[in-house]
Amino acid sequence: MKILHISWEFPPTIVGGLGTFAMELTRKLVIMGNEVTVYTLNRDNEYPLRDNWKGVEVHRPMIVNATGAFNIFAGEELKRWGSGLKFFSDVAIYNILSASKVVNQQIKKEGRRFDLVDSHDWLGALGGMIIKDETGLPMVFHVHSTEKGRSMGRGSRVVEDIEYMAGEKADRIVTVSNAMKDHLISMGFSRNKITVCWNGVDEKKYDLSRFSKKETENLRKRYGVKPDDFLLLFVGRLIMVKGVLNLVEAMPEILKDYPNTKLVILGVGELEKGIRARMNRLGLNDRIMLRNEFVEEDERILHYAASDIVVLPSSYEPFGIVCTEAMSMGKPVVVGAKGINGFKEQIIPSGKKQCGVHVDPYDPGDIAWGVSAILSSRSKMKLMGKNGRERVLKVFTWERIAKKTFEIYEKVANKNEVTENKNER
């Protein structure tokens, strides 16, 4: 197939799960023998206009700052974005220029043919809709998150309208969890259009056997963690929906029964000062290490390897690749299971295949209970990690995810009905 993606994130710029998904999926689709083209944002106009990344044809249109022009005709809500209007301008210009190049140069002038366009989130929706209107090309709207969910209901109505319009225009809506499917339906998106396809993980890169005991011990020593101590790990943006403040609040309760426990927080975000203030208030400065900085992937993977439990008490997590990464590293995971949460679809919380624990992310006491339930038995901890790794190899490899995505693409391109895999619900 000849597949076109409009993805705001793409290597070398990876911000979150959307970028990881686009990177891994497109690479696997190329390996499967497909021709893949990606249009992505040219941040600060510093990257080549046309490039090849591991067999993927990449276009990065040069953008201009249209903030002044947008201010003339933008509605009151967009004007309230203030300095953030520059971001909206960049996204809009990138989408328009991408669509124009696809339609006028690649299709009309060069005679290129594409089987479909996959637009990722609102950040790529405008380009996909323009291309569909101009060419009739089948369109997939890939929803990795929503404005309402990200902002806890306090976001931009303009962005919500773009999302809804893209859902109406698309031939198929693909989203990353059953929780997200239910969320989209509650927002008025057509139930019959939505297909769920989970994200995945590189099980070869995220493999505990890659790291020596000496490497993990050295990292633990950096944080003052002794051989018999427990190391908890949080990985994620420092924002409210990730539940990191409640995790900090849970630490005193955990330390009552397991005083030899430390927590490492890896992430950047607006809550840094709030986290440090809470650590001070609770007297936890010697028990919690906050790394408010960008940590390269290899070092992040080493942190998974050195940890005993990964704790991710999010209240909004459309899928949550960090959970899949932790499972792939053979670590038990404590996850938030309320709200719009894809974590609960990854983690089996009981039975022979248990690989972690579900908790109420709004309740520090319940988070403490979940962590303590795993800390109570090292053998249980080890078995959960083993089960998590096995679940990844069975369900969450990028090869499997790419294969399912390709099957969806084929049916959309051929205008065949897409059906849900009931086993995955």
**Total number of strands:** 16
Give the rounded overall mean pLDDT: 95
The CATH architecture of the largest domain would be 3-Layer(aba) Sandwich
How far the N terminus sits from the C terminus, by CA atoms, comes to 28 Å
Shape: globular
Q: Can you tell me the CATH topology of the largest domain?
A: Rossmann fold
Trace the largest sheet across and list its strands.
3-4-2-1-5-6-7-8
Radius of gyration, taken over Cα atoms and rounded to an integer in Å? 22 Å
Major beta sheet summary? 8 strands, mixed
**Low-confidence parts:** none
Q: Which structural class do you get from the secondary structure elements?
A: alpha/beta
Number of domains: 2
CATH class of the largest domain: Alpha Beta
Q: What is the tally of helical segments? A: 17
The percent of residues in helical segments reads: 40-55%
